[in-house]
Amino acid sequence: MIELSHDQKPQGWSAGAAGYETAFAPLTNLFVPDAIQLLDLKPADRFLDVCAGTGAMALPAARMGVDVTAVDFAPGMVALLRARMQSGGLSAQVEEMDGQALDLPDAYFDAAASMFGLIFFPDLGAGMRELTRLTRPGGRVLVGAWDHARFPLAAAVGRAMATLAPTPQERTEVPIAMRLGERGRLIGACESAGLVDVQVHEVTHTWAIDDPAQFFTSLPDWSPPIQPVLATLPLAAIARVRDGFVEAVRDLSRLTGGLETTALLALGRRAST
Ligand SMILES: C[S@@+](CC[C@H](N)C(=O)[O-])C[C@H]1O[C@@H](n2cnc3c(N)ncnc32)[C@H](O)[C@@H]1O
């Protein structure tokens, strides 16, 4: 049996939904206009958002009059997104489902996307095949992944953790969420699922973290990839790592006023039959 990592299980995402919305959605939101434009979403299009989280993409799409179905495996994310849809006077289907096996009809959607969510799946191929199966022939599919080499939040955490180790340790394994963070791998995953005309768009935005110390302190509340890293550290070590993080963020933000973060947005089409 495959051992799942913490960020591949719903619990941490679920409990952290509100914190995620405050701390991390400001980053993912930056890439949403790019994704909506690439998908060419139009009012009344049937659109599927897999790993919708707190609604970075589902909410603006619903506001445009798009017919949105949003799914996520974390009940806390689903509850928060339903509440946000309702308080915004918007209508959408928001359901708790695992993106690797979706209980939705074949070829129903005009467009489907997974922004920074499918990247966590234990079975990336199953997630890609589901996006393809559910999209009509000729319909658009988009997958958003962080560029492994240009994701400075990870660099800042790495530098901060290095303040605890006297000699820097070479990290060799690719983190779970970075397995598609390289153009060739992302294209391969899309094409293996049967998508055609696949193009990867490299999009960079500058993410200013207003209060890096507060951001760091909030990480255990909402970040499943980072929770296990910090869980083993004693309090004094956490304070040192926090200070290292603040310094690293300031340093990495110096030239541009924020963390220059690059996403790879892969856009393809389900082949017409
Ligand atoms: C980094 S968040 C991205 C959320 C949103 N798409 C955004 O851009 O802000 C990752 C989301 O993927 C969801 N997720 C992870 N694995 C999943 C799975 N196997 N099935 C469905 N949702 C999953 C998590 O619950 C979380 O809401």
Describe the structure in brief.
With 273 residues, this protein is an alpha/beta fold. It contains twelve helices and seven strands.
Q: Topology of this structure?
A:
Layout: H1 10-15, H2 17-23, H3 25-30, H4 32-39, E1 46-50, H5 58-63, E2 67-72, H6 75-87, E3 93-96, E4 109-115, H7 124-134, E5 135-146, H8 152-162, H9 183-192, E6 195-207, H10 212-222, H11 227-231, H12 235-253, E7 259-270
Parallel strand pairs: 1-2, 1-4, 2-3, 4-5
Antiparallel strand pairs: 5-7, 6-7
This protein binds S-adenosylmethionine.
S-adenosylmethionine binds at residues 10, 13, 25, 28, 51-53, 56, 72-74, 77, 98-100, 115-117, 120-121.
What does this molecule look like?
A 7-stranded mixed beta sheet has the order 3-2-1-4-5-7-6. The chain contains 12 helices and 7 strands. Helix content is 41%, strand content 22%. It has one domain (6-270): Rossmann fold, CATH 3.40.50. Bound molecules: S-adenosylmethionine (SAM). S-adenosylmethionine (SAM) is lined by residues 10, 13, 25, 28, 51-53, 56, 72-74, 77, 98-100, 115-117, 120-121.
